[in-house]
From TrEMBL:
The protein's name in its UniProt record: TrmB family transcriptional regulator
InterPro entries: TrmB-like, Tscrpt_reg_TrmB_N, WH-like_DNA-bd_sf, WH_DNA-bd_sf
Residue ranges of every copy of the Transcription regulator TrmB N-terminal domain listed in the record: 11-76
Coiled-coil intervals, chain numbering: none
Length: 262
């Protein structure tokens, strides 16, 4: 069962201050209590109890009985959770609205290579790079598990918008799958993607080159549990960064020769 400390911590994560959370947890243990009793139950300094329960009252989480001394009671748990949920959602919406109005400074571009941890974050960054493509997308899939429906849909959307999509995969079976999802893409099988070598428990997962100015290079490694893998990546944007220049030179030469996708 959750302890009082756990309840305080969780309420804190939902936006209450520590004193507010401790006062609320104390009130949840009794039918009602005075400020002095809340102080005893919660160990919140008595001088801070008053303003804490007043804020809880303004948030709609606590009722106040105008007696002498004043009595306080916590509202029913379901009511409290509904109000916290509404406040949390409202805060998220306001944050989204504020962030959406921010504009990047003109002339500034991401510099350097950025390390990305966790498969979901790698997938999100891949999606953003694909959405920003205006001319050409090159993808090398070394681990076929990385080719999920979401990636196929993003590649198809880019292709339909007029972006040239070039994909190299390790097997003809995977190539056929891509052709069915992205019929206008140029797809080829390559030894570069077949049976990637392992180095210290890591192996190549995928390479993404977008408009020859953004690179994402990811690798898989054995996870902490059996049959579980973890993906990490390095991503760089900007035509002059060393990683971009190197990958662009290695892959661009192959692509420009035209033999890969004949």
């Amino acid at each position: 069962m959750p302890t009082e400390n756990q309840a305080v911590r969780l309420l804190d994560e939902l936006g209450l201050t520590e004193y507010e959370a401790r006062c609320f947890v104390a009130l949840s243990r009794v039918q009602k209590a005075s400020a002095s009793e809340i102080h005893t139950l919660s160990d919140v300094p008595r001088s801070r109890v008053y303003d804490s329960v007043e804020r809880l009252h303004r948030k709609g989480l606590v009722d106040i009985q105008q007696t002498e001394p004043r009595q306080y009671r916590a509202l029913p748990r379901d009511t409290v959770l509904d109000r916290l949920r509404e406040q949390y959602a409202s805060t998220l919406e306001a944050t989204d609205a504020a962030l959406s109005k921010l504009r990047r400074a003109k002339g500034l571009e991401e510099q350097g290579a950025w390390a990305i941890a966790d498969h979901d974050n790698v997938t999100d960054r891949t999606g953003l790079l694909l959405e920003d493509a205006t001319n050409e997308i090159y993808v090398l899939i070394a681990d076929e598990d990385m080719l999920d429906d979401e990636l196929c849909d993003r590649l198809a959307a880019a292709s339909e918008s007029g972006v040239t999509v070039l994909i190299e995969v390790p097997s003809e079976e995977t190539a056929a799958r891509i052709r069915s999802h992205v019929p206008d893409a140029a797809v080829a099988t390559t030894a570069l993607a077949a049976d990637p070598a392992r180095l210290e428990g890591k192996w190549l997962s995928r390479i993404l080159l977008v408009d020859r100015r953004a690179v994402l290079l990811s690798a898989l490694s054995d996870g902490t549990r059996p049959s579980n893998t973890e993906e990490t990546a390095i991503c760089s944007e900007g035509p002059d960064h060393g990683l971009v220049v190197g990958i662009r030179q290695l892959l661009g030469t192959r692509l420009d020769r035209g033999a890969v996708f004949d």
